[in-house]
Every structure is written in structure tokens, then in C-alpha cells.
Amino acid sequence: MPQPLYRQVADALRQEISSGELQPGAQLPSEPELEKRHGVSRNTVRLALAALANEGLVEPRQGRGTFVRDRTTFMVLASAEEGGSARDDRDAFVAAVTVAGRNPEQVDFRMEVRTASSEVAARLQVDEGSPVVVRSMRRLIDGRPWSIQESFYPMDVAQGTRLMSPTDIPYGTITEMARHGHAQVGYRDEVLSRMPTHTEAAFLGVGTGVPVLEMFRTAYSAQRAIRLTINVYAGDSTQLAYEIGDVTAGQEPPPTTERS
Q1: What whole-number distance in Å separates Cα of residue 121 and Cα of residue 143?
Q2: Nearby residues of 188 by Cβ (< 8 Å), 6 or more positions away
Q3: 242-258 pLDDT, tens per residue?
């Protein structure tokens, strides 16, 4: 059974994108041009473009046309992202992106006190409804939205520290907690894939059919859970990597890769 016409048009454009004929940032031919090229109706062209946008391959820009989405992937070495040491006085995200030769930004920083949801309470081992300090921000790489982060702290861990201040901490929260008697000795990661919320999709610039990666990192001192950090990444532009044990004999992977 032959494919619907709009899928045939989408397949042809997808091939041009994957082959590199249409580079990231390139503008697709106009709707009238695509109608003429493929011998189809305007509605068929629009359905094809909508299908590609849903896959996250292209993005429509109001009044300008449709463009190939830049999906350059940033590799997150998740096992070393935070250093895990109170001696590391550099913010991990800024350090990692800078070392990769790219430009990090952290925007929309907020600090607030909330009541712990059942999910947060279970991971932090506190009572549901108890107050927790939440520090949140959005991160960009080379000016492009990359991740959404929220970190939750038990009130007794945050009280009396800079975690309560409505500003970022340049040397990082691991060091700040250690300075106040809560040295991080380990963490547990849980990573899942799900569809984005409308707010997440709008910020990350992903199509409605593109999933996000959600990573829950619960950090522990020798006695207890001291922080829960939730990161949400665009699923088509983030690669999570873990290194366990001594891997110095292996070739270090490049920090970024191009995806077709």
C-alpha cells in the first residue's frame, strides 16, 4: 500500500536533512516551491512540514518560513558532572561547558520555599508537606536552551547557608553544603524518558513528538539524603555518559557530536 503523499514529501525532505544537503539552520523551500517540486497540494505540504516539526527536525518561524533545527548534541559525563568533592570550587556545568570550548549561561534563577510533594519527600526522606528549599534555573549552551534544573534541599540542611539566598553560588552548592557540615559522599541517579510538558517543549524548542530526558539525582552525606536535583534535557540534543572505574586507557570521547 503506497504511503500518503504528505509522508512521501516528508521522507524526501528528511533525506535532504540527513544527507547534509539541508544543513542545520538552513531554510526549507517555501510552500509554493514544495507544491511545485512534488506536484502536491498546499495542505499536503503543510502536513509534511508538521510531521517533520513533530519529529524535531525542523522549526517554523513566524513570518519567515521553516528552518532545519540545529540538533548538535552535548555529551554530559554524568558521573563527573558535579565532581562529588567539596574541594571542587567551580560550578560543574560552567566548568564542563567551558572546557568543551562552548559558552555556558544560567538564567532565570529562583529560590523559594515549597512543601515537599510525595515524590520529593520519598527521595529526601522527609515528611510529605514539610518545607523544602528549591533552587531552580534554566541553562543554555551557545545561547540555545539546553536544560531545566530544580534542586530540593531539606530545610535543616539549607537554613543558615547561602542556599537560602536568592542568588547563584559561584563555587557550587556541594562546597556550600560541606562548609556547613553536610559533605556529599555519593549520589544515586535515576533517568527516564517521557514526553515534555508544554512549558518544557516551549523552552527547550523540541517538537511535540520529541521526548525529554529527566534525571533525578539524590545526593547523600554519610548520614542522610541532603539534596534532590531534577534535570530535564531535550532528548534529541543530550547524551548522558557514565564512567565507572579506571577508563584512562580508553580514548576520551568528544564533548559534542553532530546528529543527522
Answers
A1: 34
A2: 217, 218, 220
A3: 888 888 886 555 554 44
